[in-house]
């Protein structure tokens, strides 16, 4: 098994059989010690956050796989803090696909002249390119196609899958009394021709969740699910 | 005739007959004394720039009107530095519709990881919302529709019209030996139901034009046209 990538919150290994093992770390994205899923920096190290993120990811990936959605998830080992996944290649240098149910975060920072903070957005989907240096710039469908990052058909498929996945997660959270404000996903191309699947993780660190008026701290999300 | 708006580069008056008179000023957008059509600040005052912008605008609006494109242009008076136009209402608090033929300016600042500076973009269209405080954030079709700024049909029409208008301007400039890099337009709703037209001005201050490897200073554009 050889390490092929060292990420901010996960390391990536390739196994002998060609599948991939993600090793979760106890680092979370944020700024000045405060968690922010929209941040690029590693802002804090929290004992147990890797295992918690993995446990929540496993929960949602199993839910999605049961619903027939294409994901990279194969199996998880909580003791080892590892997740085995199918091999996938990201689009360009990686895209973040954001689905928004409430106008908060960077959406409200951009469009505050047109909408109240916290207003309903009904699963609006937008994409940013992963680029720490340029702070993950927002990109349109036309620009993604123009730059050869996605085809039109891939964009449409990803947008439709994102809405479906996030609606399922939103509904699941609602059964626990929680409200999903927004969530970011990542997709990749699989080894079969035309195969596109949900990759990365699906934990509290990828979403803003509220319990009534109170923000749910990412590491506390598991206490609501189990 | 009463003044209804004071802009960075133009003042706007309403005439007795309900049409609008734009009075061009000698201010240009830029930063630290250097012209930049993407800037929001008034960066410099140049004697004669109002008249020059008007003369070039008249030239292009007449070209477009002859091609059957809906514009707000009615007449120009170079002595008075005024342009008479049809009444129109901007979308939201105003949109800037950018058509790009070369990857320069904010496009390359955002996507430099994916494209070489100066590469061909073939008339790629994108929209920003006018918001000086937030530096004119980029906005997608979906967000424009979601925020009630444009309908889907209006977006598609504006994108198609933009491409048509800018291709005509690009071809016209080519006959003068000039290359259009990018250009920003503004559209508005007219008084008739469903009427959408090109508004604002169409001068050197709205476009980046090159003569070979040399950038054409906005005020010099008229010397190539007449």
TrEMBL record, chains A, B:
The keyword Ligase applies. One of its GO terms (biological process) is 'de novo' IMP biosynthetic process. The keyword Ligase applies. It is an enzyme of class 6 (ligase). This is phosphoribosylaminoimidazolesuccinocarboxamide synthase. Pathway: Purine metabolism; IMP biosynthesis via de novo pathway; 5-amino-1-(5-phospho-D-ribosyl)imidazole-4-carboxamide from 5-amino-1-(5-phospho-D-ribosyl)imidazole-4-carboxylate: step 1/2. InterPro entries: SAICAR_synt/ADE2_N, SAICAR_synthetase. Gene3D superfamilies: ATP-grasp fold, B domain (3.30.470.20), Phosphorylase Kinase, domain 1 (3.30.200.20). Its EC number is 6.3.2.6. One of its GO terms (molecular function) is ATP binding. Residues 4-214 form the SAICAR synthetase/ADE2 N-terminal domain.
């Amino acid at each position: 098994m050889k390490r092929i990538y060292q990420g901010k919150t996960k390391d990536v290994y390739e196994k002998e059989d060609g599948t991939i093992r993600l090793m979760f770390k106890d680092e979370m994205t944020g700024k000045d010690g405060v968690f922010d899923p929209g941040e690029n920096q590693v802002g804090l190290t929290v004992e147990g956050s890797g295992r918690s993120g993995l446990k929540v990811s496993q929960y949602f990936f199993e839910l999605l796989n049961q619903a027939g959605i294409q994901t990279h998830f194969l199996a998880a080992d909580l003791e080892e803090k590892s997740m085995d996944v199918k091999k996938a290649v990201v689009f360009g240098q990686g895209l973040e696909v954001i689905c928004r149910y409430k106008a908060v975060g960077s959406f409200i920072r951009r469009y505050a002249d047109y909408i109240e903070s916290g207003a309903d957005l009904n699963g609006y989907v937008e994409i940013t390119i992963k680029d720490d240096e340029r702070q993950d710039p927002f990109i349109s469908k036309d620009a993604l196609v123009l730059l050869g990052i996605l085809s039109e058909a891939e964009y449409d498929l990803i947008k439709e899958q994102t809405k479906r996945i996030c609606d399922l997660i939103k509904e699941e959270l609602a059964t626990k009394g929680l409200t999903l404000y927004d969530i970011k996903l990542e997709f990749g191309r699989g080894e079969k021709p035309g195969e596109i699947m949900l990759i990365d993780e699906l934990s509290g660190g990828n979403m803003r969740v509220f319990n009534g008026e109170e923000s749910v701290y990412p590491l506390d999300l598991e206490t609501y699910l189990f």
